[in-house]
Design brief:
single chain; mainly beta; globular
């Protein structure tokens, strides 16, 4: 068995980003954060010049040679003019070590199209060419019932987003979520993870590939099935952070595991795997749980929502000697974790 890497909880296990009571759109919960690491003056200056923040904040951000742009899901309270219980996406800026440096007062993406009018949820981000592409769960009203599909949006500055519509693929014509792109590798097809919520292989991690984001998409079926756990009646799994290239044709994937006990209580854990898309068995190695809810921020969520015992991930990046990842605690706040590269190298040496 491969050595299992240890997760270090940052900030003493306390949240790095929580709700803002003065902002109706995020005065209940802030969770499920995507992230993008941007390095170098040539990349950062155009973004920072257009960031709607005070000049003092902009000057502080300019003192960093690398920044992390955090796109988090937020829910608030309904007001007379708008229903903020529908999820929107907020933007915060962190240091690579995950110290909060700035956050915007207003969301950068709203549920304002026919295919996401009930919520823009659980974003994932990957750089593709000169843009950052977001996959997200589009929650919408349908002719007979509410539906969830995987949608795309893209940006050059993290503030202004162009919605590119639903992924045009057969696998996206049923309820589907947890969509995310693999880190692009030159000469390889565009690959995506997704998690159908229906059908005989529903609630499992599937994958698909295409020549470009426009398709046509070839669904490669199930990538990762749930592993039964005797403590729980039901177990399901879905993607977490977009798979990161390891430089040898393989990818590192952090994913989530949902579990339900016989009494109906649930728990969400994290797992870790190495994927080789060209191998006969693409899952080279796998371990779960990598992380289980343990701290107060992970085990006790917003009382009005009643979600407890959840760790959930939507992004990760390498920086220095570590893999960093923001994650949600109990669908309520954003926390931070990291894993030493040396320990990951041992795990990946399958």
């Amino acid at each position: 068995m491969n050595a299992v890497p240890a997760v270090e909880r940052l900030n003493g296990g306390a949240p790095i980003l929580t709700r803002m009571l003065t902002h109706p759109w995020e005065n209940r919960v802030t969770f499920n954060p995507a992230c993008a690491l941007v390095e170098g003056e040539d990349q950062l200056v155009p973004i920072l010049n257009g960031l709607p923040v005070d000049e003092s904040v902009r000057a502080k951000l300019r003192s960093h040679t690398a920044l992390v742009f955090l796109l988090y899901r937020a829910q608030g309270s309904p007001v007379a003019s708008y229903d903020h219980t529908r999820s929107s996406i907020g933007l915060a800026v962190l240091s690579p070590e995950m110290k909060l440096l700035a956050r915007l007062d207003r969301p950068v993406i709203l549920p304002d199209t026919s295919y996401d009018n009930l919520g823009v949820e659980d974003a994932r981000i990957m750089r593709v060419g000169d843009r950052h592409v977001m996959t997200y769960t589009a929650y919408a009203t349908g002719p007979d019932r509410n539906v969830v599909r995987i949608a795309l949006a893209s940006t050059t500055n993290f503030v202004t987003w162009e919605k590119d519509g639903l992924i045009d693929a057969e696998f996206n014509r049923i309820d589907n979520k947890n969509g995310m792109l693999f880190e692009p590798v030159q000469g390889q097809p565009v690959r995506v993870l997704h998690r159908p919520m229906e059908g005989p292989d529903g609630m499992m991690i599937h994958w698909a590939e295409a020549p470009s984001l426009a398709g046509p998409w070839k669904d490669r079926g199930v990538l990762m099935r749930p592993i039964p756990d005797p403590e729980f009646k039901d177990v399901w799994t879905g993607g977490g952070a977009p798979p990161l290239a390891l430089g040898d044709g393989r990818f590192l994937a952090l994913y989530h595991i949902g579990k339900r006990r016989a009494d109906g209580t649930r728990e969400y854990d994290l797992g870790i795997a190495v994927i080789d898309p060209d191998a006969a068995d693409p899952v080279v190695c796998r371990h779960e749980p990598l992380l289980r809810p343990a701290t107060e921020a992970e085990t006790r969520g917003d009382a009005s929502l009643g979600v407890n015992n959840v760790v959930f991930i939507c992004g990760a990046y390498f920086w220095g000697e570590h893999l960093y990842f923001p994650y949600a605690g109990a669908d309520t706040c954003v926390l931070g974790g990291r894993i030493r590269r040396a320990e990951l190298d041992l795990f990946c040496a399958a």
